[in-house]
Design a protein that fits this description.
2 domains, four-stranded antiparallel beta sheet, 6 helices, alpha+beta, 11 strands, 304 residues, N-terminal domain of MutM-like DNA repair proteins, five-stranded antiparallel beta sheet, Helicase, Ruva Protein, domain 3
C-alpha cells in the first residue's frame, strides 16, 4: 500500500498541473472507484464539471484537491489510493490506461488541457467529493494547503511526522499511555499518520528498537530517537521517489520510485543486517509482517 512518501510524490506531481485548473469533463468508467463517495457516478460527474481546483493537499496517506465553493459549500475531491491506486497525468485524448476507472479532463490557465486519470488494479482505492471541515487546532490541514480545513473523511487521521503542526509532545504522551507494541502504535493512524509497514520497520531498525517493545516501556530518549528516525527515513524515501516493489506504485508520470534499494530491514529476510551481519528475520504482525535484526533490536533493550 502506498505510504506517506509515495502519496506525497503523487501530490507534488499533481500540484503544479492542477492548481488553478478547471474541470471540463469527467468520465466515470467504473463506479467501484466511488466507494467513499456518497452519490452516483452521474452525480459525481455533475458536481465536478465546471469547478476550479485550488491546490493539491495531503495528510498521511490521504490526498485531496480543494475546490472552489459551490452553492456556499466548501468541498474537495478526495483520493485514497488503497493498495494499487494511481493518479496519472496524461495528454488530452491519450489512450485508456490499463485498469482506468475515472478520467478528469481539466484546463489550466498556463499549461492548457490535460487528463487526470485514476487507475486502480485491485479497486480498493476511491475518489469522492467531500465537505471540508475546520481543523481543531486552527492550523493548515496538511502538506500543500494553507487553509485550516480537511475533508470530513480525513478529520480522524492524525497529523504525520513531517507536518509542521505535528506535536512531538503529544506523540510522546501517547506512547507513554500505550502498553501495545511500539510498531502497532506507529501504525495507529489516530496517533500519527502515513508511516505504514515499510517505514515503521526501517525506522525501528535505525533506532535499534524491537518492533514488539511495549510503547510505554520506551524511555523519553528512545521515543525521541524513534521519532527522529521516522522523519529521516520518510525524508530519504521522499528524495528517492518512494518505494516501488512492482508496477502498482508510480508517480504521476508513470515512473517508479527507487527507495527499495536503500532498505535495511523490510523485505530483506535472511539477508545480513547492514550493521552487524546477522540475518534479518521476518515474523507475522497484525496480518502482515515485521522485519528486524534479532541482534541489533533485542526485545529487552528498552532503555534509552
Amino acid at each position: 500500500m502506498p505510504e506517506l512518501p509515495e502519496v506525497e510524490v503523487v501530490r507534488a506531481g499533481l500540484e503544479p498541473a492542477v492548481s488553478g485548473a478547471t474541470v471540463r469533463a469527467v468520465d466515470v468508467l467504473d463506479e467501484r472507484a466511488l466507494t467513499r463517495h456518497l452519490g452516483t457516478g452521474a452525480e459525481f460527474e455533475a458536481r465536478l464539471v465546471g469547478r476550479r481546483i485550488r491546490s493539491a493537499a495531503r495528510r498521511g496517506k490521504f490526498l485531496w484537491l480543494p475546490l472552489d465553493e459551490h452553492g456556499g459549500v466548501d468541498e474537495a475531491l478526495v483520493a485514497h489510493l488503497g493498495m494499487s491506486g494511481q493518479l496519472l497525468l496524461r495528454a488530452p485524448g491519450a489512450p485508456r490506461e490499463r485498469h482506468e476507472r475515472i478520467r478528469l479532463e481539466v484546463e489550466h490557465p498556463h499549461h492548457g488541457e490535460l487528463s487526470v486519470v485514476f487507475a486502480d488494479q485491485r479497486t480498493f482505492g476511491s475518489l469522492a467529493i467531500d465537505a471540508l471541515v475546520a481543523t481543531p487546532d486552527g492550523r493548515p490541514g496538511g502538506r500543500g494547503s494553507d487553509r485550516p480545513a480537511v475533508p470530513s473523511q480525513v478529520q480522524h487521521i492524525a497529523r504525520d511526522p513531517l507536518d509542521p503542526a505535528f506535536s512531538d509532545a503529544a506523540f510522546r504522551a501517547a506512547l507513554a499511555r500505550k502498553a501495545s507494541a511500539v510498531k502497532r502504535v506507529l501504525l495507529d493512524q489516530t496517533v500519527t499518520s502515513g508511516i505504514g509497514n515499510i517505514y515503521a520497520d526501517e525506522a525501528l531498525w535505525a533506532a535499534r528498537i524491537h518492533p514488539e517493545t511495549p510503547a510505554l516501556a520506551l524511555s523519553s530518549r528512545a521515543v525521541t530517537r524513534v521519532l527522529g528516525e521516522v522523519r529521516v527515513v520518510l525524508e530519504k524515501a521522499l528524495a528517492e521517489g518512494g518505494t516501488s516493489f512492482d508496477a502498482q506504485y508510480v508517480n504521476v508520470n508513470g515512473q517508479a520510485g527507487y527507495f527499495a534499494h536503500s532498505l535495511n530491514a523490510y523485505g530483506r529476510t535472511g539477508q545480513p543486517c547492514p550493521r552487524c551481519g546477522r540475518p534479518i528475520v521476518r515474523v507475522g504482525f497484525m496480518n502482515r509482517s515485521s522485519h528486524y535484526c534479532p541482534r541489533c533490536q533485542r526485545l529487552t533493550a528498552v532503555a534509552g
